[in-house]
From TrEMBL:
Residues 5-51 form the F-box domain. It comes from the Eukaryota. The lineage of its organism: Eukaryota, Viridiplantae, Streptophyta, Embryophyta, Tracheophyta. Gene3D superfamilies: 1.20.1280.50. It holds the Pfam family F-box-like. This is Uncharacterized protein isoform X1. The gene is LOC113736455. InterPro entries: F-box-like_dom_sf, F-box_dom, FBXO4. GO terms for biological process: protein polyubiquitination; SCF-dependent proteasomal ubiquitin-dependent protein catabolic process. Transmembrane segments: none annotated.
């Protein structure tokens, strides 16, 4: 930003603050490297408190709710805030979520067999995200990236619409922004054979290549139902993998 000094001189402080408050974390960090003025402004508690509350809106650090019924979790966060300031608290919380995301990645990778995951392990990963209290922005940052296994994209997507209860339009927009809408997974499931004149027919093997975008907008309701329910009732087994050029029944 070559003209940062002249821009700084021509901007009232409140306008400069509004500019900083409109940016994402990476942009705030970039702007803060332009000059001493922007470094001080972009490192201020005003900016980092807004970034923290935007990313983790469910966390209340106010005095009235500093301690919850299960312990002193919020109280500890309040003490961390007093020691580190909002920027330090943001970095601390980000690193905590990064470690939790890494634990999910490691778990899923251990569960893979021939590049596929059984639905029981898959659903446990989704439940673990819920137990770890991942927010939508955490999911976007760690799971909706184009340079990772598409199974992690799918786990993040499934968590968004099954646990966070986000509108389909919101999730679809996030996939588009992250440029992963057209990534595909292959879902295979085996159904118990139907009865026919007193005889049970052979078990059915079905498979479907689907895009993340179609799953987000509920265009593949049958596949969504299989992913939600897992292996129950007439469905004997479900496997999920990255889609190959051809996804044929076994």
């Amino acid at each position: 930003m070559n003209s940062s000094a002249s821009l700084q001189n021509s901007l009232p402080d409140d306008i400069a603050l509004k500019i900083a408050l409109s940016l994402q974390v990476s942009d705030v960090c970039s702007l803060g490297s332009c000059s001493r003025f922007w470094r001080e402004l972009c490192g201020s508690d005003h900016v980092w408190e807004a970034l923290y509350r935007d990313r983790w809106p469910a966390i209340d650090l106010g005095e009235e709710s500093s301690a919850d019924e299960n312990g002193n979790h919020h109280l500890h966060q309040q003490l961390d805030l007093n020691l580190m300031g909002w920027r330090g608290l943001y970095a601390h919380k980000h690193n905590e979520m990064a470690r939790k995301a890494a634990s999910i990645f490691n778990y899923v990778e251990r569960c893979l067999a021939f590049e596929a995951i059984e639905v029981g392990y898959y659903l446990k990963a989704v439940e673990d995200l819920s137990a770890m209290q991942f927010g939508f922005k955490d999911v976007q940052m760690f799971f909706l990236r184009p340079n990772i296994n598409v199974l992690f994209n799918l786990i993040g997507l499934h968590y968004c619409f099954s646990k966070l209860d986000l509108p389909a339009e919101c999730v679809a927009e996030a996939l588009s922004m992250c440029r992963i809408s057209e990534r595909q997974v292959c879902v295979r499931w085996w159904k118990l054979g139907r009865w026919f004149y007193g005889f049970r027919l052979r078990d059915e093997s079905l498979s479907r290549n689907v895009t993340l975008g179609d799953l987000a907008t509920s265009k593949e309701e049958e596949v969504l139902g299989v992913l939600h329910r897992g292996a129950i009732h007439e469905v004997l087994r479900v496997q999920i993998s990255a889609a190959k050029p051809e996804c044929t029944p076994w």
